[in-house]
Design brief:
Elements: H1 3-36, H2 57-69, H3 74-86, H4 90-103, H5 108-120, H6 124-137, H7 142-154, H8 159-172, H9 177-200
Length: about 200
């Protein structure tokens, strides 16, 4: 086994707990966001193997009715995307987020949600390009930086670049949920490299 493969194997074990936490954090923050009317995403690395949550058909109907009477309501399109995202209906989420961004292209939260949805549909390059758009809107957007690191690590297998993004999160918001997740991810990278070095000796 190559040392790089060993590093990724150990990193995968270390990150498993972190990413599970991030996914749970994402779903709980969406509930709060729906009440506030603004999405507040965080991301995980890959959809879980278990069955997705059921689609909230009532909420979908409600949001589609709102959009029908007010097609220019960017927030309603974004919330519809959130409902689809939570049910792991990522192609539908992408369509809703893209429509929201056509109306309001300067929302880094929706832009980042779109990037995460791209990643979940095996489009890591599109995800990274979308995160770069989010960071042009807000260079200090910690959720984007955290997500970018995850896609770099798992979509592109570039732990060095991923660690650079996570360090930015820790510097910007060390006590935030994103900062704590980034710190754990960095600890996982360090542990993975240490294990790889031990194996090579």
């Amino acid at each position: 086994m190559k040392s790089e493969s060993i590093v990724f194997a150990v990193a995968g074990m270390c990150f498993g707990v972190i990413l599970g936490w991030v996914l749970a954090s994402q779903q709980s923050s969406r509930s709060a966001a729906a009440v506030a009317g603004a999405p507040a995403p965080a991301a995980a690395a890959a959809p879980q193997a278990q069955s997705p949550p059921p689609l909230d058909e009532g909420r979908v109907a409600q949001l589609k009715a709102t959009i029908g009477s007010d097609p220019g309501n960017a927030g309603a399109h974004a919330q519809l995307g959130n409902v689809y995202f939570d049910a792991q209906r990522f192609p539908d989420a992408i369509a809703a987020y893209e429509q929201s961004l056509k109306i309001n292209p300067n929302d880094p939260d929706v832009s980042t949600d779109l990037g995460v949805s791209y990643y979940y549909t095996n489009r890591p390059d599109d995800a990274l390009a979308q995160f770069d758009r989010s960071l042009k809107i807000d260079p200090a957007h910690t959720k984007t930086l955290l997500n970018k690191g995850i896609v770099l690590a798992f979509g592109k297998e570039d732990l060095r670049a991923a660690a650079d993004e996570w360090k930015k999160v820790v510097e910007l918001a060390p006590d935030s949920a994103e900062g704590q997740a980034a710190r754990r991810a960095l600890e996982g990278v360090a542990a993975a490299h240490a294990a790889g070095n031990t194996t090579n000796q």
